[in-house]
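Module 6 notes. Inverse folding takes a fixed backbone as the condition and produces residue identities as the prediction. Think of it as a translation problem where the source language is geometry and the target language is the twenty amino acids. Below is one complete input and output pair. Work through it position by position during the lab.
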């Protein structure tokens, strides 16, 4: 499991608890959230502008042997300004992270693109990449829109590809085959039903945050999704299970580890069998 990353949404705990849970369950990397989704949102353990907490998290990650992979901070809403966004970059750098995740909720694409470009340039100066994640309930709803914004702003931002969001936005794994490897920063793995019970923005958001399924237990084309990703790309396991909502962070992380290991082992075997079958018919 050292090859996989544990997503903070899988645990829905504090950054310190998430790091410890990742270590307990055998994950080699972890993604953490360092603030609420919007300035002013309640958050139990703020990290931005808290040097003692930053040092504690960095020390604990090193002690646990878990790399802090990606940081989720404020989402890009129209009223979130640069003075609120910039400290997140500094915090990510101080934590030793390599990726800053961006979600766009600003319908003004020109303004969002300008802020994304500035954010990406600041992250690059701090030796981090920016991964734009399209969400079917946001202002950047699908892969085509994400690419349009990245290309339009001219900044070297990349993509975070989530198997659930790809499916719910009407995309298919074949859509990923035209991407260049350097365009994909990392990917998130989970499962779900073939179609959502409801398709409103609120319903899709609820499913994404609280009702994903373990990989291999739903109907998403996960083998094709993984096959379409660049070789060696980082995979983060993001499964917020409704049936484990009351479990401890360690219990959630261990369940995620067992689910991911079971699926990835089966996927590797299926991929090997397909390769052998293809060679036999060559």
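Target side of the pair, the amino acids:
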């Amino acid at each position: 499991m050292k090859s996989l990353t544990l997503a903070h949404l899988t645990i829905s705990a504090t950054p310190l608890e998430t790091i410890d849970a990742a270590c307990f369950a055998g994950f080699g990397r972890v993604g953490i959230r360092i603030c609420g989704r919007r300035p002013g949102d309640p958050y139990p353990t703020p990290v931005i502008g808290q040097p003692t907490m930053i040092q504690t998290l960095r020390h604990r990650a090193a002690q646990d042997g878990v790399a802090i992979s990606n940081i989720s901070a404020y989402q890009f809403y129209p009223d979130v300004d640069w003075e609120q966004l910039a400290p997140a970059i500094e915090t990510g750098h101080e934590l030793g992270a390599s990726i800053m995740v961006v979600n766009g909720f600003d319908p003004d694409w020109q303004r969002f693109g300008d802020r994304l470009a500035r954010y990406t340039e600041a992250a690059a100066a701090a030796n981090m990449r920016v991964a734009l994640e399209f969400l079917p309930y946001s202002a950047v709803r699908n892969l085509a829109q994400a690419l349009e914004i990245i290309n339009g702003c001219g900044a070297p931002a990349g993509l975070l590809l989530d198997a659930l969001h790809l499916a719910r936005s009407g995309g298919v794994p074949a859509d990923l085959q035209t991407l260049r490897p350097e365009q994909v920063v990392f990917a998130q793995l989970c499962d779900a039903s073939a179609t959502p019970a409801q398709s409103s923005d609120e319903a899709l958001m609820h499913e994404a945050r609280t009702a994903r399924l373990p990989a291999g237990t739903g109907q998403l084309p996960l083998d094709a999704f993984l096959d379409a990703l660049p070789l060696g790309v980082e995979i983060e396991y993001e499964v917020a299970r409704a049936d484990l909502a009351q479990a401890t962070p360690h219990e959630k992380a261990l369940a995620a580890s067992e689910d991911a290991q079971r699926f990835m082992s089966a996927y590797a075997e299926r991929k090997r069998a397909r390769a052998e079958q293809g060679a036999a018919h060559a």
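Reference fact for the lab report: The mean pLDDT is 96.
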